[in-house]
């Protein structure tokens, strides 16, 4: 009995020692034991939950059916280097031009950025604006207040409507801690989804290292238009949002060719431009019970090419 009384405290001490140096220890400073069990439980309860990467594979991955022949032919003056017209609902390809040619995609990159963001965040999350977001190049929202917290959905609007590179960086840092880690998430998603043409070098697309092909972009478009948060934003030609700046409002005016032209049934999606990529565009329209998408890479005139291709696509469907 006396021996048991001596060994019991020793066993407790050894267990505590092993627990302290095990992989289950808290994220406090190494070598400093927890103050108490109560303090540990409070810390765990108040710490922000770890972002568990959702699996899009819980739903069937939308594909693109490249087999078969084109449903229509159309003459385009100075056609794009690559392009596709496809049905968003069943993935059928109606028209193609070099659908697997890998090219720079400029700000079409932000379609993947938006997908990663909406699958890992909530609309009302506050996003702190860091210096990284202010050190951007190219297009931007331009009014992000350093050190202030901005509602996440306002930044998502700024990224998708006016193609704000600053908003893309702010969202990437918020989700992953740094833009580099966020880009790793983007590339991991691309591999998981079988996007063999696709590689990302940034969250915004300014570098030529952001590349893809019409087939992969059609898959991303189907995914993006299945996300209600993205779908609500990209159908807007303009938006007025509450924002922590003088006057309290942010005014956004979009670049989408179809929306600006008033194309019948236009509901999205994204423009892009760099010297290396040329003018790139993904557009979506809904008519006669169908949603059609058009992908244009390095197009001389997306404002003419996109409507002409979509008109021919809807006419082909109506004639069936």
What is the overall shape?
Answer: globular
Determine the CATH superfamily.
Answer: DD-peptidase/beta-lactamase superfamily
Number of domains as seen in the coordinates: 1
CATH class: Alpha Beta
Overall average pLDDT? 84
- SSE order, one letter for each helix or strand: HHEEEHEHEHHHEHHEEHEEEH
Concise synopsis of the structure shown:
The chain is of the alpha+beta class and 320 residues long. Helix content is 38%, strand content 19%.
What does this structure look like?
This protein starts with a helix and ends with a helix. 38% of the residues lie in helices and 19% in strands. With 320 residues, it is an alpha+beta fold. It has one domain (64-318): Beta-lactamase, CATH 3.40.710.
Features:
disordered N terminus, alpha+beta, 320 residues, 19% strand
Write the layout of secondary structure elements.
Elements (H helix, E strand, L loop, with lengths): L1 H19 L16 H10 L35 E6 L5 E5 L5 E2 L4 H12 L5 E3 L2 H4 L14 E3 H10 L3 H12 L2 H14 L18 E2 L1 H11 L3 H7 L3 E5 L6 E5 L3 H5 L4 E9 L3 E10 L2 E10 L2 H17 L2
Antiparallel strand pairs: 1-2, 1-11, 3-6, 4-5, 7-8, 9-10, 10-11
Helix pairs in contact: 3-6, 3-8, 5-6, 6-7
